[in-house]
Amino acid sequence: MRNVDAAGLGIGDDYPPRIMGVLNVSEESPYDPSVYDDPGEAAAYVDEDLIGEGADIVDVGLESANKSFSVLSAEEELDRLDTAVNAIESVSGDAVFSIETRYAEVADEALSRGFDMVNDICGFADPDMPNVCREYDVAVAKMASPPDLERPGALEDVDWAERRSAEWERNASYADYIYDALKQNGLTDKTIVDPAFGGWSEEKTLEDDRETFRRLREFRGLDRPMLVSINRKNFLRSINDRSTEEALPVSLAATSMAVERGAHIVRTHDVAETRDAALVGDTFARERIRDGDGIRIEELDVTTTDEARRHIERLGGDPDAATACTMRVFELTGLTRDARRALASAAADRTAVFETGGDGVLLAGKPADLSAIAAVTAECAPEFGPTERQLRDMLG
């Protein structure tokens, strides 16, 4: 995993998780505590409530990304830039300042006036954005989005059959949409990927966000640090039916899990609490990097075939080899003696089978081998119970 330098701030596996606080100079923004139109008041908020609480990065928004509002033009965003620039010039604390915009023109102007990085919520839909970021040699957060400046995050609106193929669309999951969108117009050396949590379109479901979160490790296959914006999001609030005001505990639980799964930046309005949760996740994450005698070894965070496939594709290998890269271990109980024998016979040289006593069996192997075992076992031992399809699902 490559690290990224954002104006001297290291981001990646070699560094602790970074916290991105939020300042909005947009009067239509839905979260009032972060909204300021007076530069002095904005600077005081940044010093006291963001940097003072532990924010490493301050993300400044010129407009609300809420889909219920009209999209501002580049000219309208530029009209608000003075307030943002005056605010950061008045801040006394030390932080990296990020400008949130979809327009390369706005990013160019903001970077020329003191901003340190870019947060592009349209994922390089403006094809000049990566060129501007390379010219200034700055970090840029790239959110998964369609190639449309007016539809940030609305991946359901993409004609995937035309973009990829009808077959790809039939087989693709929502996480596949995100992965493909993040590759749109390439990645700079200092790109930070953002899998776009939240209700960016009417068609997006809570389960889409939950699938994305479950598969968060896969986005490490892009070989870039990862930003997550999950603070008080609906896919978390709905778990316990919490209002936005009541949703801090679920956000903090998810923050720890996200960092443990590989997130490097957490964007939040609750800086101090989120920082604590992120450090807990970081403390209990696996040690991925080992160095010695000039050799660097990275343990790839691979727990599923899909996660392995992403890394193999990145390195130019055969994606089908992913089925040989992961090991699954299952304990099966409630088996008859004949079913246990059929299972052991089907496993044979493919995998390890250990009888645990009673009616139990411990089964370990590669996904492809386990799938083959499921087919043979279901065929030769009807008393086993589950059908081949059910076995494949259980051992998948």
Can you give me a brief rundown of this structure?
The chain has 15 helices and 15 strands.
Helical content stands at 25-40%
Number of helices: 15
Mean pLDDT: 88
Radius of gyration: 24 Å
Give the structural class.
Answer: alpha/beta
Spatial order of the strands in the main sheet? Answer: 8-7-6-5-4-3-10-9
> Roughly how many Å apart are the termini?
27 Å
Quantity of strands, as a count: 15
Largest sheet: 8 strands, parallel
The backbone outline, from C-alpha atoms, is elongated
Q: What is the chain-wise order of helices and strands?
A: EEEHEHEHEHEHHHEHEHHEHEEHEHEEHH
Percentage of β-strand residues:
15-25%
Q: Which parts are unreliable, with pLDDT below 50 for 5 consecutive residues or more?
A: none
Secondary-structure topology with pairs:
Blueprint: E1 4-6, E2 9-11, E3 18-24, H1 39-50, E4 57-61, H2 74-89, E5 96-100, H3 104-112, E6 117-120, H4 129-136, E7 140-143, H5 160-163, H6 166-171, H7 174-182, E8 191-194, H8 206-214, E9 227-228, H9 234-237, H10 248-260, E10 265-267, H11 271-283, E11 289-292, E12 295-298, H12 305-314, E13 328-332, H13 337-347, E14 352-357, E15 360-365, H14 367-380, H15 388-395
Parallel strand pairs: 3-4, 3-10, 4-5, 5-6, 6-7, 7-8, 9-10
Antiparallel strand pairs: 1-2, 11-12, 13-15, 14-15
Helix pairs in contact: 1-2, 2-3, 3-4, 10-11, 13-14, 14-15
